[in-house]
Design a protein that fits this description.
single chain; 569 residues; alpha/beta; Glucose Oxidase, domain 1; Enzyme I, Chain A, domain 2; TIM Barrel; 3 domains; eight-stranded mixed sheet; eight-stranded parallel barrel; 16 strands
């Protein structure tokens, strides 16, 4: 039995087979063949098997995710039927090449030709050719390609990293946990795992090298421990732990019907973070009192083009109606950094997290921003909509975003399309400059929402995805606590409510501090709501407030954690 260690980012234990999302070895030997007919027959068999495979994936994708996702694989089937491409492969086989070399050389020729064209459609077709040719090559070599859309048994995903577009396709019915080589406490893998309420370990460094596809695994999302091919003794021990965790979750269910109120009667709002309309059900199931963060970028991912205004309108309307008057805070498009959209052709950057992303991209490419704002405004009459702009660094950005929103509102009204007059407009405070002038923003915004994931990253100059510096990602650092206090005080001084939609809002050490600081809204993964509500009923805001000045004077995050734990005893 081999043991590994990573960074625990989502609690819980899992026992299942490893499902390795790694690029397989598709290298081949160049051989000369005399019997070209047999080699062409081998190629045709590989094409037929690939066709069956893609059709199966297309059916599953359409059933799970809708026609637009299935259309991606429809494009792949068209590539398989392209006579120009595969006749070229056959011609090279007739010249004496083996099928692998003929496929590779022909594919590379077409890829280069399409990628050099000044035409977005043709460039997208190159991606289809690359994907399909990889599948045909795997069939020729007898190599099985891991395909997460076809998982139909309990597995633990093992990968170097999980991109947002990959994770949106994973089926929580079968995926019991995540293990990645890279990442930190607020990587997308960690956030998704908490949303799915499954254990996750990131920053395991050599996981994809040490763990083989199909091997038995135990993972402990509370400690970061991974056991490969575990003994019966370890399996029995962790099955008992799984049972205990299930019992704890069952005991928390009684809090789904209760209000979010402290022991001394202080009421707060516990809301959920979502990425797509389907996530709403899990928030409502645990008594979530609203949506504090709708990450709309997930509507743009895993597709070949931008979602239309009507598509977006339908998604926003669905969420607003499901909440039945409860608040829904929608964050406008936050693309860039580690979240890229291939069809937007964004420039490569040395520092993408500090570059052309979020509101900066939207203010520059206003056509896509205006489409989203129109969809939101049209949907506003179906519920309690609040719009939040991300990555705001200056007042000028916030003002410009509001002007564009107002322009689109006037256009809609001019078209006799109704728009709610009750929409609150706020911003995500996740850049230190915005935190420092939160008092100025509070005069012009209806609310402030603290995005601690990036606020911590930018304040402490720590890449939150980098396991080598993960020790610097410190939510309890005195600098962070002082900034949070500054933002809350600034909002309250202007009579505005202040929320938090970063992962810190669901942290058991942070919750007492945030309660004492007067945070109005805590937004988190649905899986955290019940545990936070159960913690709230044990806390007295009045008794916690006197400790704040002492906490803010401490010099390290470790000291803050120790003091809070002592207070809670």
């Amino acid at each position: 039995m081999l043991a590994l260690k990573g960074i625990p980012v989502s609690n819980g234990a899992a026992i299942a087979k490893a499902y390795c999302l790694v690029e397989p070895d598709l290298s081949y030997s160049k051989k000369t063949f005399q019997n070209t007919d047999a080699e062409i027959m081998r190629l045709n068999e590989a094409i037929n098997h690939t066709k069956i495979e893609i059709e199966h994936i297309q059916t599953a994708a359409t059933q799970k995710y809708g026609e637009d996702k299935g259309a991606i694989f429809g494009a792949h089937l068209l590539v398989l039927q392209d006579p120009e491409l595969f006749n070229g492969v056959a011609e090279k086989i007739k010249s004496g090449m083996n099928a692998e070399q003929a496929l590779d050389e022909t594919t590379q020729f077409f890829l280069q030709m399409f990628e050099d064209m000044d035409n977005d459609y043709m460039k997208e077709r190159a991606a289809d050719i690359r994907d399909v040719s990889k599948r045909v090559m795997a069939q020729l070599l007898g190599v099985e390609l891991p395909d997460y859309s076809r998982i139909n048994e309990d597995v633990i995903i093992v990968a170097n990293d999980l991109t947002p577009s990959m994770t949106t396709q994973l089926d929580s019915t079968y995926v019991k946990g995540f293990i990645t080589n890279v990442g930190g406490k607020t990587s997308h893998t960690a956030i998704l795992a908490r949303a799915m309420d499954i254990p996750a370990i990131v920053g395991a460094k050599s996981a994809t090298l040490d763990i083989q596809h199909g091997e038995g695994l135990i993972m402990d999302g509370s400690t970061g421990e991974i056991f490969i091919n575990p003994t019966n003794e370890y399996i029995a021990q962790y099955k008992q732990l799984e049972d205990e965790l299930k019992q704890s979750k069952q005991q928390l269910e009684k809090y789904s019907q209760l209000k979010s109120v402290s022991k001394d009667g202080h009421v707060v709002e516990l809301a959920g973070n979502i990425g797509k309309p389907q996530d709403v059900a899990s928030v409502l199931a645990v008594g979530g009192e609203g949506i504090g963060l709708f990450r709309t970028e997930f509507l743009y991912m895993d597709r070949l083009d931008l979602p239309s205004e009507d598509e977006q309108f339908t998604s926003y309307k669905e969420v607003l109606e499901a909440l039945n008057g409860k608040p829904v805070v929608v964050r406008t498009l936050d693309i860039g950094g580690d979240k890229n959209l291939p069809y937007l052709k964004l420039p490569e950057e040395m520092n993408p997290f500090l570059g052309y992303r979020a509101i900066r991209l939207c203010l520059d490419r206003q056509e896509l921003f205006r489409i989203q704002l129109r969809a939101l405004l049209r949907a506003s009459v179906y519920g309690n909509l609040k719009i939040m702009f991300p990555m705001i660094a200056t007042l000028e950005e916030f003002r410009m975003a509001k002007v564009i929103l107002e322009e689109e509102k006037e256009k809609l009204l001019g078209e006799n399309i109704p728009v709610s007059e009750e929409i609150e407009i706020g911003l995500m405070i996740e850049i230190p400059s915005a935190a420092m002038i939160a008092d100025l923003f509070a005069k012009e915004a209806d609310f402030l929402s603290i995005g601690t994931n990036d606020l911590i990253q930018y304040t402490l100059a720590v890449d939150r995805m980098n396991e080598n510096v993960s020790y610097l990602y410190q939510p309890y650092h005195p600098a962070i606590l002082r900034l949070v206090k500054m933002i809350i005080d600034a909002g309250h001084a202007e009579g505005k409510w202040v929320g938090m939609c970063g992962e810190m809002a669901g942290d058991s050490i942070a919750v007492p501090i945030l309660l004492a600081l007067g945070l109005d809204e805590f937004s988190m993964s649905a899986s955290s709501i019940l545990s936070v509500r159960s913690q709230l009923v044990t806390l007295s805001k009045e008794q916690l407030v006197p400790h704040i000045q002492n906490l803010l004077q401490l010099s390290t995050a470790q000291q803050v954690e120790r003091v809070v734990k002592n207070i809670l005893k």
